[in-house]
Amino acid sequence: MNYIRFFRAHRNLLGFGLLTALSTSFGQTFFISLFLLQFQHDFQIGKSEFGLLYASVTLLSALLLPLAGSRIDSADLRRYSAMTLAALAVSAMLLASAASVWMLAAGLLGLRLAGQGLLGHISHTVMAREFGLHRGKALGLAGIGYPLGEALLPVACAVALRFVPWRGLWLLVGLLVAFILLPAALRLLPEQGSHGTPESESGGDADPQQEFRRSLWRDRRFYLVLPSVLAPPFVLTGLFLYQAVLAEDKGWTAERMAGAFSAFAVARAVTSLAAGPVIDHFSASRLLPAYLLPLAAGLCVAVMGHSPMTAFAYMILAGMTAGSSGSITSAVWAELYGPANVGRARSHAASFSIFATAASPALMGWLFRAGWRMDQMLAGAAWLILAAGAASLPVSRLAGRFQDERRRAVSSGASCFQKESKVRTPSAVR
């Protein structure tokens, strides 16, 4: 089934996945950072103080994400999505009316948890859970929402700030989410995808969330997969934050870096679409070590090269890994633990990911103070990426054999919404 036929057959649910992915932009660092100067001026805080505040709310959102994110497997999805979008709207309005640093922190916490955390979690979980053997294409289509937001919102925000105060713009964001995005999401969400795992499957009075968490912490597969999930956001967050240092070290102009970032966005969008059918054919578990290789190659190119074209090669290769990352890592959790548990598994991994993105800039700052050069950090990052991929090889081989057996068991006429058997619990195969 090609993308056009696939989208026509399931346009509502796929549109929901793309819309929720796009809506994460309002809680992403690239959008919030556009208001940094206004935050510093109105609240009389310096760059270091704001950095500490932002890191604190980001880490707190990481602690809350497993608790809130795990509920998606048992909650009514329409209500869960509506509450998340409503929380995003309230957070934007709170930011618009903030009269103190504490109100600023509360608004940022809501944006990071509901926007960056839960909306992306909803998009990936629903696509991985509801589409069975076609989850790769579903995740690829929904993943277009991320580069779409990165390409459109900074330009739109820069133009709007010429005519609207920053508080007024955040008020408009809150109204947009509340009265346009929330109704649109509920309209797109089909009734057959509106419920999580029925309570009857939980096994009596036992708490399935606590049972799964305990067994997940004992499952070594989780720890073997985790480095491959965390390595790209860890590396790219730090490098993108210090992109000016990299450009200065290499002699790249600001215009050259802006063009390279555009190439990154295009590569990310194209790879997100291209990865879908590959995942469906080979399985995400088999691709887990390989999807890190373009980023490792890009880092090596950046170490060795200084020409202006090196910036484009580095960013395009990084965009290839970033584009396939969301689809592959979300599909892996469904393949390992079954569609009924994908939300629980992904929420815990996403929490670790947020910790990683918060730790990366701090580590790079410490390395700079210790006398490390940028080329040394790039080389170290390349080795880290390769080590993370190597750690997932045992799981990749085991899960790949299981996927082959499952695919042979599914008839050729299976529905797109074919659910896999839930035999792979966290404690099943060690």
Q: What letter string, H or E per element, gives the SSE order?
A: HHHHHHHHHHHHHHHHHHHH
Shape: globular
| Overall pLDDT score | 84
Low-confidence stretches: 193-206, 409-430
| Oligomer status | single chain
Instruction: Report the C-alpha radius of gyration, rounded.
Output: 21 Å
N-C termini distance? 35 Å
Strand content: under 5%
CATH homologous superfamily grouping of the largest domain: MFS general substrate transporter like domains
Number of strands: 0
Biggest sheet details: none
Helix content: over 70%
Could you explain how this protein is built, in words?
The protein has 430 residues and is mostly helical. It has 2 domains: 11-190, MFS general substrate transporter like domains (Growth Hormone, Chain: A), CATH 1.20.1250.20; 209-425, MFS general substrate transporter like domains (Growth Hormone, Chain: A, Up-down Bundle). Helices cover 77% and strands 0% of the residues. It is globular. Mean pLDDT is 84; it is low at 193-206 and 409-430.
Topology:
Layout: H1 3-9, H2 11-23, H3 29-32, H4 36-43, H5 47-69, H6 77-96, H7 101-130, H8 135-142, H9 145-160, H10 166-188, H11 208-218, H12 220-241, H13 243-250, H14 254-282, H15 284-287, H16 293-304, H17 308-337, H18 342-369, H19 374-391, H20 393-409
Q: In summary, what is this structure?
A:
The protein has 430 residues and is mostly helical.
Keywords:
globular; Growth Hormone, Chain: A; 20 helices; about 75% helix; 2 domains; disordered C terminus
